[in-house]
Design brief:
Layout (H helix, E strand, L loop, with lengths): L1 H19 L8 E7 L11 E6 L5 E2 L4 E4 L2 E4 L1 E4 L3 E2 L4 E5 L2 H7 L6 E4 L8 E7 L5 E8 L10 E4 L7 E4 L22
Parallel strand pairs: 8-9
Antiparallel strand pairs: 1-2, 1-12, 2-8, 3-7, 4-5, 4-10, 6-9, 10-11, 12-13
Amino acid sequence: MTGVMNSHKLFLLAIGILCTVPSAVSAQIVMTEVQYDPQGSDTGHEWIELYNTATSSIDVTKLRLSEGGGNHKIKVVQGNALLPPQTFAVIADNARLFRSDYPQYTGELFDSSFSLGNSGDSFALKDETYTVLETVTYTSSLGAAGDGNSLQRSPVDADVFVARAPSPGAAASTYAVAPPIKDIKQ
């Protein structure tokens, strides 16, 4: 009888441990592009691109964008709350302004309230239990500081972000926007 009780306790312990482990599916969403300092006024024009690397859909509205001490809700604006596998999506600070800036964008679009620092910042994507799925940290020294570029995850090294022409909803751009020519007074 003791052996049966011990095996029953082990079974319940194993179930308890499995229930506390974060879902592997929700851990398979990555942030691939950041527009933190667009040309001109960046108020409301910032956005973050996501990519679902999982083999099943992920409900983006169950995630939270953690920035500036808050865990911001994410709501669907265009498309579906469920992001299909191998698909990009955009979380915009202001979805109306994003649509105006990128009228050709037809993918999943989400809205959240956030403000990214122009000199650098750190933000995270969390699941519904507030477990951090991924954190992105950047500084303006990486580029994309008001020059028309965004920071995009490098296709060569996933831990590195590089300045490239914005490509919301698509794979990393292969070119960068040339810096503006400055007049040199003599």
